[in-house]
């Protein structure tokens, strides 16, 4: 069933939508009231009041917050704050989206499955072999760009990642900028609140444990525990059916490069480009934040236990 606002690259049904609401404690009867209350709160915050927000974004952050108004406020605070503190990951899209002759992905490919598998959206990433082309800012700028695309058009924020490490080596790891990585994790994990149920790593190099140890410094340990290392495509296919995988992973979907190219074409359409550029305005004015009313450590301590699933 086609839904109003549904995008052909991130399909879901009304049944899927209702299942997400039920899973996350959202009830249609109280949704309008929740959104109204959060909108009113938002407009009263001096560091947020001049930034835009819409009801759809609030609803999606409510989903990530499992229906809790207070946790939604916390996520919105982090969403706008961490984006304001990372212009190299957010504002840099303005230039790249205006360059029609320049490839957005440069050294890697990223795609998303159009159909849900087990109520989850599958994302795919692979890399080129030359580590000299690896750039942490470009990598996470694009990952967040895809995340914003999904915030605009998708309704599913429980996802599965398939990461192909075939062409990676120590050269890539050594070029990883830990400051940029931390900023990206803050945006994606603390702001967007996307839940990753499983990370499937294929073609993992022999130094894979070094990668895991490095990532443990930045992401929650539960994320690392959800990683599955596969020694073959047959092993991957035991977890994800072929109809949800790209051709180059033994599946029925277009190749990962084709999925990546399709995303880039969509990002350059007038409607989607405008939506992605509008996200650049979703930043706080930290100079206006009432410091005495905002204790980040207290907020993190209050909600961390609620953010495990």
From TrEMBL:
SMART domains found in the cross-reference section: SEC14
Top-level taxonomic group: Eukaryota
Protein name: CRAL-TRIO domain-containing protein
SUPFAM superfamilies attached to this UniProt entry: CRAL/TRIO domain, CRAL/TRIO N-terminal domain
CDD domains to which the protein is assigned, alphabetical: SEC14
GO molecular function: phosphatidylinositol bisphosphate binding
CRAL-TRIO domain boundaries: 121-257
Entry-linked PANTHER family: ALPHA-TOCOPHEROL TRANSFER PROTEIN-RELATED, GH10083P-RELATED
Entry GO terms, CC: membrane
InterPro entries named among the record's database cross-references: CRAL-TRIO_dom, CRAL-TRIO_dom_sf, CRAL/TRIO_N_dom_sf
């Amino acid at each position: 069933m086609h839904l109003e606002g549904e995008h052909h690259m991130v399909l879901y049904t009304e049944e899927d939508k209702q299942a997400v609401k039920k899973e996350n404690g959202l009830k249609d009867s109280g949704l309008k009231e929740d959104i109204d209350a959060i909108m009113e709160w938002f407009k009263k915050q001096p560091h947020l009041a001049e930034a835009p927000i819409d009801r759809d974004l609030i609803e999606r952050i409510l989903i990530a917050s499992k229906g809790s108004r207070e946790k939604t406020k916390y996520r919105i605070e982090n969403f706008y704050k961490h984006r304001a503190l990372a212009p190299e990951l957010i504002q840099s899209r303005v230039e790249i989206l205006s360059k029609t002759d320049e490839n957005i992905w440069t050294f890697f490919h990223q795609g998303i499955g159009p159909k849900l598998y087990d109520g989850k959206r599958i994302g795919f990433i692979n890399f080129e072999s030359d580590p000299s082309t690896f750039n942490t800012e470009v990598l996470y700028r694009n990952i967040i760009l895809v995340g914003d695309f999904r915030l605009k058009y998708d309704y599913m924020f429980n996802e599965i990642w398939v990461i192909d490490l075939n062409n990676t080596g120590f050269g890539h790891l050594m070029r990883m900028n830990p400051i940029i990585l931390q900023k990206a994790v803050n945006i994606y994990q603390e702001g967007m609140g996307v839940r990753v149920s499983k990370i499937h790593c294929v073609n993992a190099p022999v130094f894979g444990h070094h990668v895991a140890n490095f990532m443990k410094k930045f992401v929650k340990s539960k994320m690392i525990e959800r990683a599955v290392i596969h020694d073959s495509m047959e092993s991957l296919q035991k977890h994800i059916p072929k109809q949800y995988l790209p051709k180059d992973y033994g599946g029925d979907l277009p190749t990962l490069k084709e999925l990546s190219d399709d995303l880039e074409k969509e990002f350059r359409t007038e409607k989607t480009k405008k939506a992605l550029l509008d996200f650049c305005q979703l930043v706080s004015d930290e100079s206006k934040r009432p410091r005495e009313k905002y204790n980040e450590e207290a907020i993190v301590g209050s909600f961390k236990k609620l953010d495990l699933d």
